[in-house]
Amino acid sequence: MTADITCRNCGAHLPLTGDQAVVVCEYCGKHNPVPAGVRAVAPLPPADAAREDAAAMAAVAGAIAEATAGQISAHVSRTGSAIARKLVGCIVGVVVAVAVLGGVLGAIVPAFFERVEPVVEPKVAGPVIGEVVTPSWESADGLATARNVLTSLEAGWRTSVRCEPVHLFKVRHDGTMDMGRGGEGMLSMICRDPGALAGLAPQTTSVKGGTYMVEVKGGLAGGMETDTTLPAPGGASYLEGWPACDLASLRRAAADAGWPADGYADVTWPDVPYALSARGMLDAVASEAGCGDELVAMMAEEGWDEALYGFFLYRVAGYDAGDLPVHFGAADCLPVDVEAIKKRIVDEMKSKTKGCAPASAKKSRKKKAG
């Protein structure tokens, strides 16, 4: 099974094709370090093959010894040299030693490999992750499976668990995923215990435990508890609900918008576009001439709930999206014009200020004053 990791920036599935220490995400360009434990390593040969190789090596060494002894003895008989006879004894002794060594290896090598269990696929998780794939491994509903993962973690790990966006890879044209053995579909989630960060000591950035990483693929539902690290400001977002739009409808809507109708798609739910995130909106309003400070203060006072702007993120690996929409609505599956939404919000905010109301609002105020 090919090793893989998840991009630390966008969560994309990144297959590993060698023993590289760093892999660059094809979606966002992030350089991701590859832990030594997951770098692609050739599987150990089975014991029978090792035994056969060792036996063959011993046989070859024996044949070489026999042939060499015969050739050199014939040469000595022709020359009659005493020195050559002594040399024959040394050479034959070395060759025979090689043959004996081959026989010893033939016994040791198989015994060694019989004690080593080759690891060729990930371990299945313990009681935390149960039967989560629905309705079947070969035709799985990725979103329904993600809901089952969350329910399983609530029951077996932390009742207050919160999960970051779910990443679905290799979604077929009908919205299903083949996550069975030999299938290419995969679900990836990172879930956290909200109370874990409360255990952070001063001047530290991580605490033991508190994060559960989940992957479902290849007929296996796997999970691993890891340390919780302090997220960057504004860098963490969580599942706040489930969309009404299903994956089959999403694929049809994307095809209508110009994306390929066949093949695989990669889907993330939910994804908050940077332009509509708290950080992105602060950048937008701060740049407004004449009233940027006022708008920033307004956002600080009223707050910004970026969870209201979570959409489907739609991608096709290796396909140049160009001007195609990449965000789709959670309720209607339709393409989302992120810039239009941002402009509408900023205009509404400006209409509430004194220094940078839209031009139409300023004209109406002058008329009322007149």
Short structural summary:
The protein is an alpha+beta fold and 370 residues long. The protein has helices spanning 47-79, 82-115, 142-156, 247-256, 278-286, 292-302, 338-351, 359-369, and strands at 4-6, 13-15, 22-24, 31-33, 162-163, 166-171, 186-192, 206-217, 220-229, 265-271, 311-315, 327-328. Helix content is 37%, strand content 17%.
- Give the rounded overall mean pLDDT: 74
Amount of helix: 25-40%
Query: Largest sheet, described in full?
Result: 8 strands, antiparallel
Strand percentage lies at 15-25%
Order of helix and strand elements from N to C terminus: EEEEHHHEEEEEHEHHEEHH
Label the overall shape: globular
| Number of helical stretches of at least 4 residues | 8
Alpha-carbon Rg, integer = 32 Å
| Distance between the ends | 77 Å
Judged by helices, strands and strand pairing, the structural class is: alpha+beta
Low-confidence stretches: 40-88, 94-127, 359-370
Number of strands: 12
Task: Provide structural commentary.
The structure is a single chain. The chain is α+β, with helices and mostly antiparallel strands and 370 residues long. Strands 5, 6, 7, 8, 9, 10, 11 and 12 form an 8-stranded antiparallel β-sheet that branches. A two-stranded antiparallel ribbon has the order 1-2. Strands 3-4 form a two-stranded antiparallel ribbon. The model is unreliable at 40-88, 94-127 and 359-370 (pLDDT under 50). Helix 1 (47-79) packs antiparallel against helix 2 (82-115). Strand 8 (206-217) and strand 9 (220-229) form a beta hairpin. The protein is built from 8 helices and 12 strands.
